[in-house]
Design brief:
α3 crosses α9. The protein is mainly alpha-helical. The chain has two domains: 51 residues, no CATH class; 207 residues, MetI-like fold (Orthogonal Bundle), CATH 1.10.3720. It is built from 13 helices and no strands. It starts with a helix and ends in a 7-residue tail after the last helix.
Length: 276
């Protein structure tokens, strides 16, 4: 059935409106990051004379490169730990029938619904008992609270769709469980692994509350906390240009990653949504 011209017009206008609302803050942030001095008060999106002074000031005033590295280590560590646990858990929950499996899945999903502040005090005691306070390992452990549940949930959904005949053939050939998971199933799980890895990386990269609570020294500081500590010449002055430059540096890599792997993200998140 062909869509009427009015329906196409509504769709086009709605698409343009959504794009403007979604992209305008990002474009404004990029344009402001190249403004300097009185140009910051100009209402135009892009300055007439772009300047890199804000980016130079950002790296000159603090070890922003080290903060980026800390965030990358924390996010990468959280992704690696989440996948290592989630792949094994997804096989058990998706391929093995046992009593209480549904309840366990609901508990895993329920953990992700708790606000961070609810688990903050208990997690602080755990980190202090493990002697991880003011260490990047504390942030990796804390980030697992919100990266691990949805990683397991997505991988379980994808794991259930894999053909049972493939597993039976591998068992007949004498393949062990771990070999079957990492050598047979892992290549088939690639779209789901890419989707969950990227979403977990973004969540851990942007995490603020745990990073602020569990680290105190500048050597263990991550980017979200570092951005909040950027100040101007006085404590009452906000250097908007420098803040925008920091936001661009933090955001652009994530946008590029999402654009590069968007097909895997869509196929991974929609696995099992339609059953033939």
């Amino acid at each position: 059935m062909k869509q009427s011209w009015s329906g196409k017009a509504v769709y086009a206008v709605s698409s343009v409106l959504v794009l403007v609302i979604a992209l305008f803050p990002f474009i404004y942030m990029i344009g402001t990051s190249f403004k300097h001095g009185n140009a910051l008060f100009d209402t135009s999106l892009f300055p007439a004379m772009p300047s890199l002074d804000n980016y130079r000031q950002l790296f000159r005033g603090q070890p922003f490169g080290a903060y980026l590295m800390n965030s990358a280590l924390v996010a990468g560590g959280a992704v690696a730990a989440s996948l290592a646990v989630a792949v094994l858990a997804a096989y058990a929950l998706g391929r093995i029938a046992f009593r209480g499996r549904g309840v366990l899945m609901l508990c895993i999903l329920g953990v992700s619904m708790f606000p961070q502040v609810v688990v903050l005090s208990g997690l602080f005691e755990l980190i202090r008992a493990l002697d991880l306070y003011d260490h990047l390992g504390a942030l990796v452990l804390a980030d697992l609270i919100f990266t691990l549940p949805f990683t397991i949930w997505i991988l379980v959904t994808f794991m259930r769709e894999l053909p049972r005949e493939l597993e039976e053939a591998a068992l007949i050939d004498g393949v062990g469980v771990l070999t079957m998971i990492f050598r047979v199933f892992m290549p088939l799980l690639r779209p789901a692994l890419v989707a969950t890895s990227l979403l977990a990386f973004v969540a851990a990269w942007n995490e603020f509350l745990f990073a602020l609570t569990f680290t105190i020294s500048s050597g263990q500081r991550t980017v979200p906390v570092a951005i909040t500590m950027i100040t101007g010449a006085s404590s009452f002055e906000l250097p908007w240009g420098t803040l925008m430059a920091a936001s661009v540096i933090v955001t652009v890599p994530l946008v590029l990653l999402v654009l590069a792997f968007q097909r895997h993200i869509v196929s991974g998140l929609t696995a099992g949504a339609v059953k033939g």
